[in-house]
Amino acid sequence: MTRKQFRLVFIAGALGVIGVSVGLMLYALRGSVALFLSPSEIVEKAVKPGARLRIGGLVSKGSTDKTASRLAFTVSDGAHEIGVDCVGACYGGIPDLFREGQGVVAEGVLEPSGRLQADQILAKHDERYMPREVVEALKKQGRWQESQ
Q: How far apart are CA 128 and CA 39, in angstroms?
């Protein structure tokens, strides 16, 4: 085998190994692609208790029950609702944007009762939000519209 043939075989082998490793990584991550599941998706997929997941939706109005050491609320997507309990370290990390009728993502473990035992709560702002710097830049360019 000449040096040129050896080099081509080596490069082809290296590309094959890289391709297989990328394929294995994508295969392993295929279930983790979604940022969160809606309550309807959790019901449809029949997620088993003990599964770690993220649930996203709106905090149902009138569902928040806050005590000195516990926060309980319901997340809804309009069709289904799932209860969320937040105690311990999670309770101390409740964002300022958290309120009823607002979007939320809760990460935790699904309990046998069907409620999510959350260890992290993320409040979502509405889709019209823009950082102040972006608004100022758009105003300077003359492209800002007050309806945004």
A: 24
Q: What's the pTM?
A: 0.60
Pick the CATH number of 34-124 from 3.40.50.1820, 3.40.50.10420, 2.40.50.140, 1.10.340.30: 2.40.50.140
| Residue 77, H or E segment | none
Quote the Cα angle for 66-69-73, to 5°: 35
From residue 128, give the alpha-carbon distance in Å to each of 28, 125, 147: 35, 8, 10
Q: Residues 6 or more apart from 80 whose CB is under 8 A from it?
A: 38, 39, 40, 42, 43
Residues 59, 102 contacting (CB under 8 angstroms):
yes
> Angle at the Cα of 128 (from 37 to 96), degrees rounded to 5?
70
CA 13/CA 8 separation, integer angstroms? 8
List pLDDT tens digits, range 7-37.
999 999 999 999 999 999 988 887 665 577 8
Pairing of strands 103-110, 116-124: antiparallel
